[in-house]
Amino acid sequence: MTTYILRRLVLMIPVAFLVTVGVFVLVRLSPGDPVLVFAGEERDPAALDAMRHEMGLDQPLPVQYVVWLGHLAQGDLGRSFQTHQRVLEAVLERLPATAELGFAALLFSVTVALVIGILSAVKRNSVVDLLSTSITLAGVSFPSFFLGIVLILLFAYVIPGRIFPPGGYTPLSQDVGDNLRRLVLPAVTLATASLAVNVRQIRSSLLDVFGQDYMRTARGKGLRERTVISRHALKNALIPVVTLIGIQVGAIIEGAFITEQIFFWPGIGRLAVQAIPSGDYPVVQGVVLISAFSYMMSTLLVDVLYARLDPRISYEAAAV
Amino acid sequence: MTGTTLPVVLRVPAAGRASSIGYFLRRNPRMIIGGALVVAWLFIAAFAPFISPYDPIKVDPQNSLIPPFTQGHVLGTDDLGRDVLSRVMWGSRVSLSVGLISVSIGFLVGVSVGLAAGYLGGRFDLFAMRVIDALLAFPALVLAIAITAALGPQIQNAMIAIGIVAIPAYARLTRGQVLAVRSREFIVAARAIGCSPLRIVMRHIFPSVTNALIVQATLSTAFAILAEAALSFLGLGPQPPYPSWGQDINYSQRYLPNLKWWMSVGPGLAIFSAVFAFNFLGDALRDALDPRLRRSG
After folding, report:
1. The whole model's pTM is what?
2. Which residue in chain B has the smallest CA separation from A11?
3. Helices in A142-238 by DSSP H: which ranges?
4. Which of A149, A284, A310, B112 has the fewest CB atoms within 10 Å around its CB?
């Protein structure tokens, strides 16, 4: 197992290198002169040149890349052109909000998917099954930003009593009740697309397991149906779901860009989206890079977890 | 020779191609529903200038915020008096063109890389697959947002961004299939009779991948439409006043407290039905064309 993890980490190095090159090139492709954006009102050519020199932008591109990578290795993602705040600091300030939203969405998506997926597989081809399969297909196709708007319309404006506010954020430390009230709509919005994928996966892996010999044996020895499902079917069927949760970390990161925008949720997605129109590239670069690395790490974590959960999987041969 | 019997030729009813297609479609109702919806959207997109009831960008302040089914506006009007139905119809041109062109970019580049990497192997395969891994390291929409933000908020850039995001799926799929057939007898035979590598790849390997690629192309068109709508929603697609589904939903958000819901419902349902159509068709095609990928249940 340790060898496998080490090998995966070594294999990640070239990929991580290419990711950093990609992000660096993307930012350098951006239109406009970053010095002009950073300088604000300052237009004196000598001052601008000095600033360009100070920022290292008068160096050849490969040199700029190496310098940037060196800073990156020390956790320095640069400064925002607009606020002049350190990017890492800005990201860390907003990370708790994104993490809270992501965690709530994941929890909601997995819990609801388990209930619907199990019902749907146990009562295969019934009305429940038909309904849940149709809803899941619809869920995959439903744009999250439209769902968010529908939810805001319903729960904040149409249904009297304003059950949930249309947006905004109250830190958990300030008011737990208000924080949770504001969390519901964005979490449901963010969870819906992955909920649909989860239901599909749970249903289909349960159906696979139902056809196995050990299920017949379990039923044959007189176990109750509930025990057969919870002890024998679910334990095996949930292994692929772990992989899916890993993939969903990516879906949740990208969904946060949209959901946070709709609900004025002050997370890292909103930070990046707001930085785009003003050409605040270090912020966009920082958030994109952090998203990519979090996604890569979550994929690795899932693969390791997968091996722990399922002793049948041997990673010695499947390492490359 | 007595007692010989002539073979009896049963007269096969002149079923023809039409009825066999009919039989196939009857057995695949999802393909009919998905296909019909896709054709309907393609028709609307192609003929929007002729069938849309109003000019989608003409401002008419006297008719602003008219509810649906009133004064000849089936989906109502927005705050500037523009007909929502007409904007939805014209918006389909953006969504479908971005969808189809970006999928073509992803298809062409991805399949070429996959064929070359799978067939050539060695260093090229190693390098190409690391680049593909690097593309996969980004959550898809985040990469599309980053590319569009870097290139500038324009429809062509959205196409390029979504196209780049689509490349890995085609490249991996194609490479996998090529590796599976590369050492089969018919490839060895083709090599033995002196076929050029290009001919082997195009005439012998590529046809074995097409079914899986058709399924992938249909499903990734659904993703591309959704991604374009998301980019437009974030202001990274076509710029106002040109109609675009995502951008129109974003714009309508400011009227939610006044309960002017119809401004967002039109484009929202349009995105949903277009994405649903391609997903539905893709699922049905997967079952029909590629039984190996068929999901259980």
Report:
1. 0.86
2. B130
3. 144-152, 176-210, 213-220, 225-227, 234-237
4. A310
